[in-house]
Amino acid sequence: MTEQTFTPRVFSGIQPSGGLTLGNYLGAIKRFVDMQEAGTHETIYCMVDLHAITVWQNPGDLMRNTRELCAGFIASGIDPEKSVLINQSQVPEHAQLAWIFNCVARMGWMGRMTQWKDKSGANAEGSSLGLFAYPALMAADILIYHATHVPVGEDQKQHLELTRDIAAKFNHDYGVDFFPITEPVIEGAATRVMNLQDGTKKMSKSDPSEKTRINMTDDADTIAKKIKKAKTDPDPLPDTIDGLDGRPEARNLVNIWAGLTDETPQAVVEANAGKLFGYFKQDLAEIAVDKLAPIAGEMARLMEDQTEIDRILGRGAERAREIAAPILAETYKIVGLVKS
Ligand code: AQP
């Protein structure tokens, strides 16, 4: 068997399960833009609406959130000419390959996923089958494009390992070298942005409390208020990052600063050593407003022309299917679903 070489290609997605958060921006979208601009890979970015419905979504909200997410991608710097920008449900090959992967992945693998355990909680019996199978659809999202690299936040690391396991098992079971073993790209100072009121939980768009997160649509005043009200401790900033051990809320604000300014957390503590958090938070609020308010403004402007957003997603789906359809056709041949 000769070893296949794969086109360097990036795929990543975000669920339209609510408004975008600062966590999604620093952990994912900022990296998406970097990889687009580096020009070393083809880049495909996706609104994963089929993932969102693994938990209940109001249909009207889902459509609105999908368009708003598309506006958020573009306002943050994703260029629909340079990158392929798509909505998952408009490219049916994702779901078709996911079924095949449902038959490759093992129940035991899925049951070990921490996201499944966290989201199903004490109610596994009452959770959707889709929530359980979520990582097989995620593997299909990536592998339907033979993507070689996937930029994500820290929380998605385990799902990416499972994507590699699914690719390896498929290749092994069918005696082929067809799917790439994808590399995760987890980089930057803020790969896990934490909840502003509890530094041990991640910032999440579906958290019921607004003050736990910064939304990408928040105005300048709201951003500043949320940062000023973020939980901290009474001690001043240390002069090395080791001094943040056991201080999760303090560490989180330092990481957010570093993520927004592209500095290292060590450089941030050195520059602010000895400062009380009341003052640090005032400066951080200014940095956050400078970076985020223009994105929110641009999102609002883009949302005024929803026909244009729909056109961009329609064009993206056409471009995506040009890559996905031949890969699905070849998969069907390998599996024996059509004549080879
Ligand atoms: N807090 C975070 N810090 C860094 N990265 C994060 N990501 C999400 N939260 C953080 C990254 O954003 C990308 C898209 O995530 P997603 O929307 O598909 O799902 P999620 O990880 O489950 O995000 P949420 O906000 O917590 O959504 P809900 O509340 O609907 O479950 C991923 O690359 C993720 O790592």
Q: How would you characterize this protein structure?
A:
The protein has 340 residues and is mainly alpha-helical. It has 13 helices and seven strands. It has helices at residues 22-38, 49-52, 59-76, 93-102, 107-111, 114-120, 129-143, 157-174, 220-228, 248-261, 265-272, 277-303, 306-335; strands at 9-14, 42-47, 84-87, 149-151, 183-185, 194-195, 198-202. Strands 1-2-3 form a three-stranded parallel beta sheet. Strands 4-5 form a two-stranded parallel ribbon. A two-stranded antiparallel sheet has the order 6-7. Strand 6 (194-195) and strand 7 form a beta hairpin. Helix 7 (129-143) packs across helix 8. The model has no long low-confidence stretch (mean pLDDT 96). Bound molecules: adenosine-5'-tetraphosphate. Adenosine-5'-tetraphosphate binds at residues 14-15, 17-18, 21, 23-24, 27-28, 152-153, 155-156, 191-193, 202-206.
Mean pLDDT: 96
Low-confidence sequence ranges = none
Radius of gyration: 21 Å
Instruction: State the major sheet.
Output: 3 strands, parallel
H/E element sequence: EHEHHEHHHHEHEEEHHHHH
Annotate the secondary structure layout.
Elements: E1 9-14, H1 22-38, E2 42-47, H2 49-52, H3 59-76, E3 84-87, H4 93-102, H5 107-111, H6 114-120, H7 129-143, E4 149-151, H8 157-174, E5 183-185, E6 194-195, E7 198-202, H9 220-228, H10 248-261, H11 265-272, H12 277-303, H13 306-335
Helix pairs in contact: 3-12, 4-7, 4-13, 7-8, 9-12, 10-11, 10-12
The structure holds adenosine-5'-tetraphosphate.
